[in-house]
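re: ur question from yesterday

yeah so i grabbed the chain u mentioned. its 91 aa long if i counted rite. heres the sequnce exactly as i have it in my notes:
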Amino acid sequence: MGVKVDEALANGRQGVYTFRICGQVVHRIGAFLPVQGEQPRFSQIYIRDPEEQADIRLGVFDDLDRNLLLELQAALNQTNPFCRVYKSIGE
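ran it thru and got these C-alpha cells back, copy pasting raw so excuse formatting
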C-alpha cells in the first residue's frame, strides 16, 4: 500500500497520536516479471499456465492438494477479472 502521510500530525511528539492520509490510498503492484533467478510470486504467478501455477504454489505450501488447487485456480480464472487481465498482459 502506498500513501502520502501528513507528517504534521503523525509526528508523535505532542497530543494524541493521529495518522492521516492525504489524497488517495494506492496499491503498489510489484514488477510484472520476477527478478532473474527468483521464483514468481503474487501477481507474477497468474501469467503462467495452470500446471506451472500449481507447481509454484506447491513449492511454497507443500501440504496442498494438487487437484483441489487446480480446481480453485480454474474457478478464479473464470470469475476474477484481475486473473484474466494478468493473463492477457502476459500473452
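noticed a couple things. The mean pLDDT is 80. also Residues 1-30 form one domain.
anyway ttyl
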